[in-house]
Design goal:
Elements (H helix, E strand, L loop, with lengths): L1 H24 L5 E12 L6 E7 L6 E5 L12 E2 L14 E6 L1 H5 L11 E10 L13 H10 L3 E5 L2 H9 L16 H9 L8 H6 L1 H4 L3 E13 L3 E8 L6 E7 L12 E16 L5 E17 L7
Parallel strand pairs: 10-12
Antiparallel strand pairs: 1-2, 1-6, 2-5, 3-6, 4-5, 6-7, 8-9, 8-11, 9-10, 11-12
């Protein structure tokens, strides 16, 4: 009996190893599916595009809308769920509905006033993709490359007169060079506009009325509370003006850092585009929603003074 038991042990171990290997091989991998957009309508309240369509992607796949680029780091996601901008739109029964913010998709403020301006973008479905939707994209470099590899057809998004009228009511930062002296060159006008980050928007105003300021170029200074890093992006939670009740969520493309790192307790000044409200889960599982900023510039002054914010 002992000899049989000893002989059976390797067999059992081999069976367990085979089972583990089979289980790991069954791990689902991310996959990009093409879609067919069947309808694009302008929402009457905030002028978002509402798109509907079909796809062969399985239920639960996430819908992404992105401008294609050879550089994956330039690809951002501009889709929103109909139940809130922090949620992913998802596939159900081969169909989907998503919202697309024209300000984010068009990007260049010079084109906000052009009725009939057309922006091309790819609309894809991504299965087995666990990354949460945080502005500006929610797209990792890996999934951006997969989207390019899928070679999806682009969809035309055209600005309507009602959208342009809505943008005008927001007083967006558009090119007003026609009102300036003709002696000013277009290059200097573009340069000054690129540096026109507003400093007059308080944190309280941003938190209370995020829709009004979404897409605007803003600047804030504060102390870094938390740093989250990956290969492509660095996310920061910043206590604006040292006030730990006024927390700003900042996302940076690592190229903005030029090889440097931001540390907790650093005093930083960030410039970027307001992203509306960003939601995430705390370690306790509680949902937290705070204003977000997609940073284009950051200045790190080192460790903040002990009395900063007092």
């Amino acid at each position: 009996m002992k000899r049989r038991t000893l002989f059976a042990l390797p067999v059992v171990l081999m069976a367990l190893l085979a089972l583990l290997f089979w289980g790991s091989s069954q791990k689902k991998t991310m996959k990009v599916y093409t879609t067919k957009v069947t309808s694009i309508k302008v929402m009457p309240d905030d002028s978002d595009w509402k798109i509907t369509g079909t796809t062969d992607a399985p239920d639960g796949s996430k819908i992404a809308v992105t401008r294609l680029s050879n550089d994956p780091l330039d690809m951002e996601n501009f889709s929103e769920g109909i139940d809130g901008e922090e949620s992913w739109p998802k596939v159900k029964n081969g169909k989907f509905t998503a919202l697309v913010d024209p300000i984010e998709l068009v990007g260049d403020s010079d084109n906000y006033t052009k009725v009939g301006y057309t922006q091309k973008a790819a609309v894809v479905a991504i299965s087995n993709y666990s990354k949460s939707k945080s502005w500006p994209d929610g797209l990792t470099s890996k999934v951006a490359k997969a989207i390019n590899k899928a070679n999806p057809k682009t969809v035309k998004f055209t600005l309507s007169s009602s959208q342009v009228k809505y943008f005008d009511s927001l007083d967006l930062d558009v090119d007003d060079s026609s009102d300036k002296s003709s002696s000013s060159s277009s290059s200097s006008s573009s340069s000054s506009k690129a540096k026109n980050y507003r400093t007059d928007v308080s944190y309280d105003s941003l938190a209370r009325d995020p829709k009004t300021y979404k897409g605007e170029y803003l600047q804030y200074t504060g102390e870094v509370m938390q740093v989250l890093e990956d290969d492509s992006y660095t996310d920061l939670r910043i206590a604006v003006n040292g006030n730990y009740d006024d927390v700003l969520y900042v996302e940076l493309d690592n190229s903005v850092l030029h090889g440097k790192r931001i540390l907790e307790d650093d005093l930083v000044t960030v410039k970027g585009v307001s992203a509306g409200i960003i939601s995430y889960k705390a370690t306790s599982g509680t949902k937290i929603s705070i204003p977000g900023l997609a940073a284009t510039e950051i200045t790190d002054s080192g460790t903040a003074p002990d009395d900063y914010g007092e």
